[in-house]
Amino acid sequence: MAAGVARAQKHAPWILLSPSLVTIGFLLIIPMMFIVVYSFWLRTATGADQVGFYLDNWQEVLSDRFYRDILLQTLKIAFFTTIICAVVGYIPAYFVANTKMRSKTFLLIMLMLPFWISYIIRTMSWINILGTSGAINGLLLWVGIIDSPLNMLYNQTTVILGLVHYLLPFMILNVYVSLEGIDKNLTEAAESLGCNGFQAFREVTLPLSFPGLAAGSLLCFVLASGTYITPLILGGPRDAMFANLVFEAIITQLNWPLGSALSLVLLVLLGALVVIYTRYLGVDQIAKSFR
């Protein structure tokens, strides 16, 4: 009987994990295996998928300069978006973490408020702000600063602006969690040793908040690299990102093999970035921001 109890205790963690493992297997691993298999099939001239093991899709994706340029443009847009989110997001995160107001919970709810609105609606709202008939052009025309509407939409700048609008709360929350965990006595100790406010921030607060800043940067970069809604709505023909190519191949051209190869290229690239982050910083900080 004791052996049976010991055996049950040994297998208890796996029994408790089995619902999650089955869910992950059916919703993540099996679909991913289908994508890998699809990437080696071939799209024929008749529109049918030819089953087999062909490297044509991979040769096209890895050798065609068009795909390489779009990938580099995607990484560039994601990089600038992440930098802007880090610089702009640190300030409100620092304010919320160090405020002496009693309504800190209210401020956190305000930070979460954008998540209650559809991402597509938030993105399309920029058309009413920056469009030729939008609020900014209407105000400038009414004041008399300009004689005709400015073309402020459908370029790379508006794509980055839309991505910053979408991803900024992720950055703020991650930095806030990191700042909230810093012992305030450390800053006071630095000031008692002769540091002024800025020196205490530079030598104590900023280094200790780096894990949250890194976690927020990782989230912003990965999410920005994989988006296709923002460049589709706010970008022009030359502002497509890599996810737009995947969407075009699968939805418009119905070329599942090519679309699968494209998606796996982006997945491997972003996965490598996550592995590097996990190797040196860990994923604990990202998990903390969603607790």
Automatic annotation (TrEMBL):
GO terms for cellular component: plasma membrane. The keyword Transcription regulation does not apply. It is a multi-pass membrane protein. It is found in: Cell membrane. The keyword Transmembrane helix applies. Keywords: Cell membrane, Membrane, Transmembrane, Transmembrane helix, Transport. GO terms for biological process: transmembrane transport. The chain crosses the membrane at residues 12-41, 77-97, 104-121, 127-146, 158-177, 213-234, 264-282. This is ABC transporter permease. It comes from Thalassospira profundimaris.
